[in-house]
Design goal:
The chain is about 60% helix and about 10% strand. By secondary structure, it is mainly α. Strands 1-2-3 form a three-stranded antiparallel beta sheet, with no helix packed on it. Helix 1 (about 5-15) crosses helix 2 (about 40-55).
């Protein structure tokens, strides 16, 4: 394995709450014990998070959407 990217660090921590340290590609818990993980699972989590962010950017924030529904109705909101 090689050094993990920042996105992979974040994904690994989302997948395993016991991770407290990552040095290179080695993750450890609070006692310094090595935590094994699947790089495929980590990369899948990175891709899932990227997809969520992409989709989130494609829509207005929920407060604006609710305001639109309140002022213009659901049918007009659906058109946008």
């Amino acid at each position: 394995m090689s050094n993990l990217t920042i996105q992979q660090h974040e994904a690994l921590r989302r997948l395993n709450a016991n991770v407290v340290s990552i040095l290179g590609d080695v993750a450890t818990d609070k006692d310094g014990k090595v935590i094994t993980y699947s790089l495929d699972d980590v990369n899948a989590e990175v891709e899932a998070k990227a997809y969520q962010e992409k989709r989130r950017a494609e829509y207005p924030v929920i407060a604006d959407q609710l305001d639109d529904i309140y002022h213009n109705g659901v049918d007009e909101w659906k058109k946008t």
